[in-house]
Every structure is written in structure tokens, then in C-alpha cells.
Specification:
The chain has about 180 residues and is α+β, with helices and mostly antiparallel strands. The chain is about 15% helix and about 40% strand. The protein has two helices and 16 strands.
């Protein structure tokens, strides 16, 4: 396995051997590194968030039915993070980094989030001084309706409202949903 220092030494050595002609290629490489990684099976970004489609999902040690089950997820709509793809299998993890390989048929593209603060206030508008709709406790799973830079509009148990993004797990900081 290469370390950062090892790669830097190879890069410097390559530049010294090639000379100034390597600069345009180096710039192209930096631009490619800024693009999100894509899954080989779906072409979708990695990592990305999905939700558990069923009330029970087995996370296995490897991508296949013959691999040992490491985790059993039992909360329908729970947000999960996809970190890899192999054929019909997705490597997933929960908020704590626990998980494994799960068959894609158990996962949904419906976006949900997990409340991570003890008690979160849901507001009518994306403002902390807006009227309150509900109070959500840690561990509540809510459907994402929309996300802006600092707030997300959520739906949970018939209530809809805005919650501060910092209180949620299941959405990337740079991600905006409409």
C-alpha cells in the first residue's frame, strides 16, 4: 500500500524525469480527482445515501449469500451510506460505521435522515425564530423533502417542517435536495 509520502516521491521523480511536459497532465489528474467517485454497477456517486426498504436487512461480511451475516438492521427507512458496489450488492454502513454488504433489492433511493441531537425543534420556516411544528428526539427517522445550505424540510408522522441540517445524519454537507 502506498503512503502519501510514497506517492509524492513517485510524482516528484516522474516530473524530474519528464520535465515541464508533465504539467498539463498533472493539471488534468487534479481535475479528475475533484470529480466524485462513481459506482461501477450503477454509475451513481460513491459514497451516497439510501434507505432500508424493508423492516429487516442482513448485512453480510462479503457480497454474496454464502457470506456470514454481521449485522441485522431492523428499522424500515433507516438511512444507510453506500460506500461500494459489486454486481447486485452494495457495501453499506450506518451512522456508527457498522454494516457490511447488502443486496440492492433491500435498499431504496428514498432519502431519509436520522436525528442525532437529543431534541430537535421542527419549524414552519427555515428560521430558528419561526413557529414550532414538533419536537423530534434522537433516533427519529424522517423523510427528506428538501435541503438547503443550513436547513432541511422533513416529513415525519404526518408533520412537515424545517430542521437545522447540523442535527441530521444521512445527507452530505455539500448536498442540496429539491
Amino acid at each position: 500500500m502506498w503512503t502519501k509520502a510514497g506517492w509524492a516521491a513517485v510524482l516528484v521523480t516522474g516530473l524530474l524525469m519528464i520535465g515541464a511536459d508533465a504539467r498539463p497532465a498533472l493539471a488534468q489528474g487534479a481535475a479528475a480527482a475533484a470529480e466524485p467517485r462513481r459506482g461501477p454497477e450503477t454509475g451513481l456517486p460513491l459514497p451516497r445515501y439510501v434507505s432500508l426498504k424493508t423492516s429487516e436487512g442482513r448485512a453480510r461480511r462479503g457480497p454474496g449469500q454464502t457470506h456470514r451475516i454481521d449485522w441485522l438492521f431492523t428499522h424500515r427507512n433507516m438511512p444507510l451510506r453506500v460506500t461500494a458496489e459489486f454486481e447486485n450488492w452494495r457495501r453499506i454502513e450506518d451512522m456508527e460505521g457498522q454494516g457490511g454488504w447488502m443486496h440492492h433489492s433491500l435498499l431504496s433511493g428514498v432519502r431519509t435522515v436520522l436525528i442525532v441531537d437529543e431534541v430537535v425543534t421542527m419549524h414552519t420556516q427555515p428560521q430558528s425564530n419561526a413557529p414550532e411544528v414538533a419536537h423530534l428526539q434522537v433516533g427519529v427517522v424522517a423523510r427528506v423533502l428538501r435541503c438547503e445550505p443550513d436547513w432541511c424540510r422533513l416529513g415525519v408522522n404526518g408533520h412537515r417542517g424545517w430542521v437545522e441540517r447540523a442535527a441530521l445524519w444521512g445527507i452530505e454537507p455539500h448536498e442540496f435536495l429539491d
